[in-house]
Design brief:
This protein has 190 residues and is mainly alpha-helical. The protein has a single domain, classed as Orthogonal Bundle (Tetracycline Repressor, domain 2), CATH 1.10.357. Helix 6 packs across helix 7. The longest helix has 22 residues. The radius of gyration is 18 Å and the shape is elongated.
Amino acid sequence: MDVEPTTRTRILHAAVRLMGREGPDRFTASALAREVGMSKATLFHHFDSLDEIPLAALEEIFFEMVEDVAEGEVSLSGRLDAFAREMRTLVDNEHFLHAYFVFFIKGMFDPRFRERLSRGAFEMHRRTVEALAPTLATGEDPEVASRMVEVMLDGLALHHLAMGDHELLDRAWYRFTELLVAAQDTEDPA
């Protein structure tokens, strides 16, 4: 059964579409209200300011991704495959991919935005650790393994934006996961 998205979720997804299509200079309350098909008053009923919407959108999308990964397969290779599928879905969405990097660029120059981006990244990392930790060999540091996955996913997204070569990027991801899984197998004789 499909569940109708909440008004807040509709706003967040529209924010990603708008930011990815128009860039940060055209991301206004009026433009977002038109994109969602509602009044500016309704936008500000759900959010205190326009500045909080793009990062809330990014966080929601990534938190949904990690929740989907954590609910699935319980082996390391299964979780890594799930991360790859989820990220591939995201990077295939041109608006999301553009918005994703707009967020990071904006964070380079806006200290308040960077601080909020940092808080969201910390929460994303915490959730990634929770998703991967049960699948790791005894003694493997889930912080390090999670950071490796996050860095690889970010790098693949950036390369996809620059080059768009799905096949090569997919092969790179699967080679990375093979190495990570093989390292786990040699550390955990059980």
